[in-house]
Each structure stands twice: as C-alpha cells, then as structure tokens.
Amino acid sequence: KRHLISAADLTRDDAVLILDTAEEMARVADRPIKKLPTLRGRTVVNLFFEDSTRTRISFEAAAKRLSADVINFSAKGSSVSKGESLKDTALTLEAMGADAVVIRHHASGAPYRLANSGWIDGAVVNAGDGTHEHPTQALLDAFTMRRRLVGRDAGIGQDLSGRRITIVGDVLHSRVARSNVHLLTTLGAEVTLVAPPTLVPVGVGSWPCEVSYDLDAVLPKSDAVMMLRVQRERMNAAFFPTEREYSRRYGLDGDRMAKMPEHAVVMHPGPMNRGMEITAEVADSDRCTAVEQVANGVSTRMAVLYLLLGGSEPAVTTSAATTN
Ligand code: CP
Questions:
Q1: Per the annotation, does 43 bind a ligand?
Q2: 141 vs 107, 109, 145, 202, 268, CA distance in Å?
Q3: Binding positions for L-aspartate (predicted)?
Q4: Does ligand 1 have an atom closer than 6 angstroms to the CB of 137?
Q5: Cβ of 54 less than 6 Å from ligand 1
Q6: Angle formed by the axes of helices 54-65 and 12-29, to 10°?
Q7: Domain check: are 108 and 234 in the same one?
C-alpha cells in the first residue's frame, strides 16, 4: 500500500513524477471546465486535529476536481472533544469507506501510526504532523520554485540541481523546513538554514544542509528565500523573541530583499506574521510567491491523490474534462 508520510521517503524520480503530474493537473485548471472524472466513486477524508486554512481547503479542492467524494472532519466539534481516540476515529472513517485519509495532527508521528496500524485500508497522506513533516507543502514549494527558476515547460522532467535555497526563521518548530530540506536536497538543490541559535533544532548537524546565523551574508547567494512563521503557539511564553529584535536580525524587509539577486523569489508557506518575519512591503511585492504557492498547492495535491489512488489510468486526456 502506498502512503505519503515523509518527504524523506521520496526518491528524486518519485518527486519529479509528482511535479510533472502536478503540471498536467495545472493545465486542467486552465481549462473552462476544471474537473476530471479520475477519482469518481472514491472517498477522500480530510481528518484535521489541528487548525488549517490553506491545506484543508486545498485538499478539498484537489479531491473535488478529481471527482472524488470528500468528507471533512474537524476534531473541534467532533467526539474527539469527548475523549474519543485516534483508533476509534479511524475505525469510524474506515466504516464509511475512506479510500484516502488526509491527516493533520498536533502529534509528530500520528500519520505514521495511522498508516501502520491496520485500522484503515486506505492511503494515508500527512498534511502536517506536529513539528515533524509537511510533505505536500514541500512538494508545492518545489513546484513553485521549479516553475519560477527553471520554467513551466522547461521544467518538465527536471529537478532543482544547483539552485541555492535559503530557509529563514523558526526552524525548530517548522515541519515545513524539515520537509523542504529533505525534498530540496533530493532534487539537487543546496539548502542553507538561517535562524537564531535558540530556534535551530538539536541534531541539525545530521541534516543535509548548511546553517548560518547571518541572513545578510546569505541573501546575495540565494535563488529563493523561504521565510518561516514564528510559531508562538508551540513556544513557552518565556522564550518568545521580541518582535523588534527578531525582525531586526531575521526579518525580511525591502532593504534586505534588495540584496537578493534580481531573479530570486521570496516564499512563505503561510500563515504570515506580517511585521515579524516579513514586512507587508515584501509580502505584497511581485517577488513574493505566497499566493502563487496556494494556487500551486491544489495542482500538487491533485497529483498526489491521483498517483496514490488513480494510478494506472492516464491523469489527463483531451476528452477527460467532465461537468460532473
Ligand atoms: N501552509 C499551511 O500549512 O497553512 P495552513 O496551516 O493554513 O494549512
């Protein structure tokens, strides 16, 4: 059975196949009728134990564009608040015939547990687990970088060899950073993490990337600069960095952005703390791909669901668009 739990599980060929399939899906989005019949009769469950705007809506849109039935489950307002376990929740979903379960959970490892428990038969997709991984975010980020740095058509079949990507900020609490480090290096990119010493994870020395504490020195050598949200909800209040001090050392403002090469892009997975890790001037500039990343997330998640559930049939044919 196939699942998507960690970006570290993907080979270079797996990742390029997903990005190429996402390009096919994006062409469907350019058509007047945006739907494919590929997953008709299949059921995708969005199982969200933690808040989300982009990921949940994006998976819902992706599944619906592939004609799957979608069940949205949010822990808030469910029997989880009465103490129901992950196992009993999973068994309930299994009884409803879930072909895929997209799970976001505050506990690192919850998607792995679900995939290997025997509680459900369907494919499991990790939509963010604790501070561990967020593989589809890394895939949509890589898709966005490949389009911007290699080209939409020129990028087909290509990876990100030789591109220099800088990831800045609260790496300690960031599942986005961890998944991106794994995926980007698998795709041949050189990754540098820039963070305050207190927000660098113990064990980062074993990650396949460089670590710097000097953002201004790294910016001129970057093809893409990914700003991370400072995740106060995962910090002890005593360790909150002050907004002023943090943004002075590690925030991206217009003056700092001017140090980047002209072709380089600014990325942010969202949600943003405007004024903390990124100024409004940078967030709203043409060089910032945050909104483009959200749009690309739908095509990327269509590709993931298609490859996990649809598999053998062609994803897109000239007559495949449907009004259903
Ligand atoms: N980037 C991201 O995961 O956003 P959400 O938390 O809104 O899903």
A1: no
A2: 23, 22, 6, 25, 9
A3: 82, 175, 229
A4: yes
A5: yes
A6: 70
A7: no
ipTM surpassing 0.85? yes
Residue 321 domain-assigned?
Answer: no
| Nearest atom within ligand 1 for CA of residue 270 | 1
- Residues 6 or more apart in contact with residue 9 via CB below 8 angstroms: none
- For residue 2, is it within any domain? no
Within a domain: 29: yes
Q: Which domain holds residue 43?
A: 7-133+293-310
pLDDT in 10s for each residue of the chain, 324 residues? 699 999 999 999 999 999 999 999 999 888 888 899 999 999 999 999 999 999 999 999 999 999 999 999 988 888 888 888 999 999 998 998 999 999 999 999 999 999 999 999 999 999 999 999 999 999 999 999 999 999 999 999 999 999 999 999 999 999 999 999 999 999 999 999 999 998 999 999 999 999 999 999 999 999 999 999 998 888 876 667 788 888 999 999 999 999 999 999 999 999 999 999 999 999 999 999 999 999 999 999 999 999 999 855 555 554 433 333
317 inside domain: no
> Which CATH number covers residue 278?
3.40.50.1370
Q: In total, how many domains does the chain have?
A: 2
